[in-house]
């Protein structure tokens, strides 16, 4: 998740930070701890299902075609799973006991993990949009194995590059450069304080948000523009290209990937809006539960992915079905039932 821009309401994690004079958590804190726990469980279970379904599908159905986008979805699922395993449990404990007890180093490390995983997600959505753009821009080459513009190896290399670059871009505060970290008692989250490093924060924003937002906006604008052009019946000079384009645009992965991107940014817009408002205005908004709500709404985006995949991805529904058959039935029965399956579920 992105870090704080600074402001009141957050305490230093160099020492234990208490949200109340009493060590016993209030009823409100326990309720918030329960909400965070439910969010964490939902994130972990949903992303474990996504990872298991795609990996099992790759093994059991090795002879079937696998979309390149599946590798990007696996990367997203791994990032969200790590958030559910490494970040959320610490917040559950902090909310339950009413204070941060893990010390400043763990607080700074948690903040680093949050920003790194968030950057990985932003970069991955950029690669997904590029993949969908190439599928529409070059439909003949994209579907031809011998001339393809997107191979499994390339997509895997992009994901390795994404994880390494995100980890390196976000590591200076962790290694001692302006290493302030704040525990926000309103949201029970440790965040790196980027307000004291304006130049580095601006540079990181340009390197992470700039290319991603520009690519996403342009690529999906092109995809929907081509869809409108095709639906309007506008003549195309190459009949073979028009046929391939029509078949490619019928792929539900375009709509599914756009909804994944939209759900991610819509989940985080309230948080960004609140942070920007508080940064440029002196008073801190003191609406009860507002800060808690916008932060955990953003983190909850890690769960909506499985809902969108089940609704809009026939291949994921097939992979999930095969996973259930693998877990519940004998291998011979599974192979018998796979004969009647196809990628249209």
From TrEMBL:
One of its GO terms (molecular function) is peptide binding. PROSITE patterns: G_PROTEIN_RECEP_F1_2. It is found in: Cell membrane. GO terms for cellular component: plasma membrane. One of its GO terms (biological process) is cellular response to hormone stimulus. Gene3D superfamilies: Rhodopsin 7-helix transmembrane proteins (1.20.1070.10). Belongs to the G-protein coupled receptor 1 family. This is Probable G-protein coupled receptor 52 isoform X1. The gene is LOC106127785.
């Amino acid at each position: 998740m992105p870090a704080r821009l600074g402001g009141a309401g957050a305490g230093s994690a160099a020492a234990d930070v208490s949200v109340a004079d009493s060590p016993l958590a209030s009823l409100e804190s326990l309720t918030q701890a329960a909400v965070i726990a439910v969010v964490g469980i939902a994130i972990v279970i949903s992303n474990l299902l996504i990872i298991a379904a795609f990996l099992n599908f790759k093994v059991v159905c090795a002879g079937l075609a696998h979309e390149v986008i599946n590798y990007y979805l696996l990367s997203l699922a791994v990032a969200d799973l790590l958030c559910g395993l490494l970040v959320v449990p610490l917040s559950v404990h902090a909310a339950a006991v009413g204070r941060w007890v893990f010390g400043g180093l763990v607080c700074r490390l948690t903040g680093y993990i949050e920003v790194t995983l968030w950057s990985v997600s932003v970069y991955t959505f950029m690669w997904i949009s590029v993949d969908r753009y190439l599928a529409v821009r070059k439909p003949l080459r994209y579907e031809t194995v011998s001339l393809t513009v997107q191979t499994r190896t390339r997509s895997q290399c992009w994901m390795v590059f994404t994880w390494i670059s995100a980890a390196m871009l976000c590591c200076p505060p962790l290694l001692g450069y302006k290493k302030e970290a704040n525990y926000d008692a309103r949201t029970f989250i440790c965040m790196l304080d980027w307000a004291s490093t304006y130049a580095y924060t601006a540079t990181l924003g340009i390197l992470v948000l700039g290319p991603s937002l520009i690519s996403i906006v342009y690529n999906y604008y092109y995809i929907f523009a081509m869809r409108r052009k095709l639906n309007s019946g506008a003549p195309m000079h190459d009949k073979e290209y028009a046929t391939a384009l029509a078949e490619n645009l019928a792929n539900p992965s375009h709509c599914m990937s756009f909804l994944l991107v939209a759900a991610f940014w819509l989940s985080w817009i309230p948080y960004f809006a609140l942070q920007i408002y508080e940064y440029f205005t002196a008073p801190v908004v003191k609406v009860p539960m507002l800060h808690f709500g916008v932060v955990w709404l953003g983190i909850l985006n890690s769960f909506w992915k499985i809902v969108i995949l089940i609704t809009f991805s026939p291949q994921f529904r097939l992979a999930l079905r095969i996973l259930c058959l693998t877990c519940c039935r004998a291998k011979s029965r599974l192979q018998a039932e796979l004969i009647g399956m196809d990628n249209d579920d």
